[in-house]
Design goal:
Shape: elongated
Strand order of the largest sheet: 1-5-6-4
Order of helices and strands: EEEHHHHEEHHHEHEHHEE
Radius of gyration: 23 Å
Strand content: 5-15%
Distance between the termini: 64 Å
Largest sheet: 4 strands, mixed
Low-confidence stretches: 1-6
Helix content: 40-55%
Number of helices: 10
Length: about 375
């Protein structure tokens, strides 16, 4: 007798770490940012204490705060500019009134966050102003750029895990509703609240209507009823979960692919390059190229934002085109530092080796 096909996993995770009431509480997404910046500070402080980076340990917290502010502001502005410009001029009667400040509407863009951190890099490199107006603690901006991928990859990893918990940034479908699916695929209830929901048969739609009526008998709006259904499933109602599971598509867990790529593979590459003292900018250029290549690859399994009128341009998503630009910037930076040379920093396997200055041929 042939054994039954393995079943995919049903996503029942609650996005709230602590839920008080309505929109009041602490989400895993917010915690991922806080933990990411905490890990970044601990790593940077450890590097500073070993004199592997040109900043005093007591200044590392200020540096992380600047990078955090740049990442959050840049990430939100980047999402609005790259994916949903109407957020900039849309206002609401509910707090916080401006749609740009409502992070539950669209979220953040990692490419925008990177640009925001680049602005923070120059503020950090400038250093604090002395009483006489000078800035004696200036740091080479390219050296600061080299910190970011080393200390930032834990945040990338946690952020993608939070995307998975939220059931957002859905992956491509590997099996239609009701069809056998591989064990590694995931079924996200959130798909029916997006434009990526697969079409259901007449019988499946009837099953869904009955399920919504059972979950939210007093609801007048199907969307409200479905949100109530998801809340019940996220709070442990296995009966509703089993009934909804055949009505969902099985998908690539693209969020986990990107967590692995951006939080583990990228970290491994950057820390491997940083094992020896390198000309300032080398690690940053490596990170740009590596992140861009990994993002292009992982987005093959991820669907573009459903609200975009044009989801792909010449076969690539907007995220992939922005990653192509990152690769080009990384190659240009490599060429520039190769020509100019500069001071060497880092080298975590060579802690006793003092910084040196190289000529163009040594980069």
């Amino acid at each position: 007798m042939t054994p039954p096909a393995p079943l995919s996993w049903m996503h029942t995770l609650d996005p709230w770490a602590i839920h008080i009431q309505g929109s009041l509480g602490v989400r895993w997404y917010g915690l991922s940012y806080l933990l990411g910046f905490l890990f970044a500070w601990l790593i940077l402080r450890a590097l500073a204490k070993r004199r592997l980076v040109a900043i005093e340990p007591e200044r590392t917290l200020d540096a992380i705060i600047s990078l955090a502010f740049g990442a959050v502001v840049g990430g939100r502005l980047g999402y609005a500019l790259f994916y949903q410009p109407d957020l900039i001029w849309t206002f609401d009667s509910a707090f916080p009134w401006w749609s740009l400040l409502m992070l539950n509407r669209g979220g953040m863009a990692s490419h925008g966050g990177i640009l925001g951190m680049l602005v923070a890099v120059f503020l950090i490199a400038r250093g604090p102003k002395a009483d006489d107006g000078s800035r004696p603690l200036r740091i080479p901006p390219l050296h600061v750029c080299d910190w970011v991928p080393l200390i930032g990859t834990p945040g990338f990893f946690l952020g993608r895990l939070a995307n998975f918990v939220n059931g957002e940034l859905l992956g491509a479908i590997v099996a239609a509703p009701g069809q056998p699916a591989p064990w590694w695929a995931v079924k996200f209830p959130q798909e029916r609240l997006t434009g990526h929901a697969p079409q259901l048969t007449t019988d499946q739609l009837a099953q869904l209507d009955v399920l919504l009526a059972d979950a939210a008998p007093n609801a007048t709006d199907p969307t409200d009823a479905y949100i109530r259904l998801m809340e019940l499933i996220q709070h442990g109602n296995t009966d509703f979960a089993h009934r909804l599971e055949p009505l969902l598509a099985a998908r690539h867990p693209s969020q986990l692919y990107q967590a692995l790529a951006e939080g583990v593979v990228l970290a491994a590459v950057c820390w491997w390059v940083a094992r020896k003292p390198r000309v300032d900018g080398t690690i940053a250029a490596t990170a740009l190229i590596t992140y861009g290549a990994l993002r292009i690859a992982t987005e093959l399994f991820r669907l573009p934002d459903d609200h975009l009128a044009v989801q792909r341009i010449a076969g690539l998503s907007r995220g992939q085109w922005l990653s192509v630009l990152m690769i080009a910037c990384g190659l240009a930076l490599f060429a520039w530092i190769k020509a100019r040379g500069g001071q060497r920093h880092l080298g975590w396997t060579h802690p006793s080796e003092p910084p040196t200055t190289t000529g163009p041929s040594d980069a």
